Amino acid sequence: MISGPLELQSRLSPPPRDLDVFAWVNTGLIVLFFALLGSRFVLAPGLPVGLSGDGSWALPRMDGAAENAVPASVVVSYLREDVILFEGGKFTLAELRKHMEIYAKEHPGAVMLVRADRQVSIQDFAKLASMASQVGFSQAQLAMEQPVAEEGQP
Q: Where in the cell is the protein located (predicted)?
């Protein structure tokens, strides 16, 4: 080699060994964070809707539900994807639009209270709330219950 006569190889410093330790520490920390954040011990934000075991209605409980309450003009019971009870009739989401338009014209500024079952996804509730806004309802509320105070608690 060309560096042989000048003995450049002997003047090179050995490769640093400390970098290997930091790489292993970083890898270990990444694995630890993925394990912790992917576990069931991390609380996921959300709203539980209809979690009763006996199949009956179980409205979500929320502190301050009574403070945000407004008088509802009409109650809509959303049982499944295509089973919606409105003003004594059973409708699909597509059929419901014309009945909601008629109701909104007769009752301007109406507030719709939605009782959603556990089988109803939040996307379906959002579609219903969006449709209610388009046809003239002033507000759509998801039904909530105030948590019952346990014995000995205020």
A: Cell membrane
